[in-house]
Amino acid sequence: MNFEHVFDQLELTTDPFAVCELRGECDLGLGQDANATLHYILAGEGAILIRGEPAIEVSPGSLVLIPALQSHALRSFGRPGEPVPKCDPAELKLRHVLEVSRDGGDDNQVIALCARVRVGLRGAEDVIDLIRSPIVERIDPDNPLRPVLNMILQELSRPTTGSRAMIRSLLTQCMIELLRRRVVHDDEGLRWMAALRDPSVWEALRALLDAPGDAHTVESLAARVGMSRSTFAQRFAAAYGSGPIELLRDLRLHRAARLLRDSDLPVKTIAHSVGFSSRTAFSRLFEQRTGQSPIQYRQQQISQR
C-alpha cells in the first residue's frame, strides 16, 4: 500500500521536555507519560526496559517511541563510548534527569533526548494514541539523517537563539524517518495506518478519537458507518488488530491521564468527562493499567514538573 497521501496529511509535532543522562552502569526509571514519548539516544550504549516487554537495546542513533501510559526505564551498560560535548538543558528550559552509579564517569555515559509526540490526521487529534506497542528504529551512520544527531548535540551544548525551535524541527524529521521506515516493514505498532484503506473503519476510528467520552458501543459505531454489528466488528478487528471497545478503553485512559496531569479537576469529574460511569470504576481500571491510583499518578506528575 502506498502511504504517501497519509504522510502528506499528517500533522506531527514534537515537544522536547528532558535530557536524561546516565553515568556508569545504572538504571533510570522514567515512569509513564500521558503522551507517547520519543527517546533519541545521543550517546552511549544501553537498553530501554518496558514492563512486560523484551529489553530494547539502544546506542547512538536509536529512536524509540513509547506509547502513552507504558511504564519504562533507561539502562546504561556503563561501557566507554565516544566523548560528547557537555549538554546545557537548563538553558533550553529542559529538565536534566541525572543518574550516576558509584563508578560513573563522563566517558561511559548514556544521553537521551526525550520528547512528547502528537500526531493529527484529517482533522482528528491524538492519532498517536492508536499506537499500542513500542516502535524502534536506528539511524545508521550511513543514513542521511545521521548528522542530525550531531546537530542536536551542538544545540544542546551551545544553546543560542532559536535552539529549542531547531531541536523540535530536527526531532520531527527523525520522527518522520521512524514512521516511514516502520511502515515499509509493516510494523505492528502502525496497524492504524493500514486501517485507512477502509473508509468505514477510519470513520469509526475518527469518532472514537474525537469524542472518547461519548457512549460508544459496537452497535452505535456499526450504525454510524452503515454496517451490521458482526460485519463491522470483523472489519474493524481485521484493519486495526483489536476490537473498538478495547481501543475506546485505552483512549479514555489516555485522555484521563492528560487531564490528571494538566488540570486540577476532581477525579470524579475527569472520570465522567471521559466516559466512565463512576469514579470507582475509573480508578480501578486506571490502577490496573498504570499501577497507580489517579491521585498517585497526579502527584507524581506534579513532582516531575
Automatic annotation (TrEMBL):
- Superkingdom, natural source: Bacteria
Which InterPro entries does the UniProt record give? AraC_lig, AraC_XylS_family_regulators, Homeodomain-like_sf, HTH_AraC, HTH_AraC-typ_CS, RmlC-like_jellyroll, Tscrpt_reg_AraC-type_HTH
Q: What is this protein called?
A: Bacillibactin transport regulator
> Could you tell me which Gene3D superfamilies the record lists for this protein?
Homeodomain-like, Jelly Rolls
Any Pfam family from its record, for instance, is: Cupin_6
PROSITE patterns hit by this protein: HTH_ARAC_FAMILY_1, HTH_ARAC_FAMILY_2
Tell me if Ligase is a UniProt keyword of this record.
no
- Provide the GO MF annotations for this entry: DNA-binding transcription factor activity; sequence-specific DNA binding
> In this protein, which residues make up the domain named HTH araC/xylS-type?
199-300
Which keywords describe this protein according to UniProt?
DNA-binding, Transcription, Transcription regulation
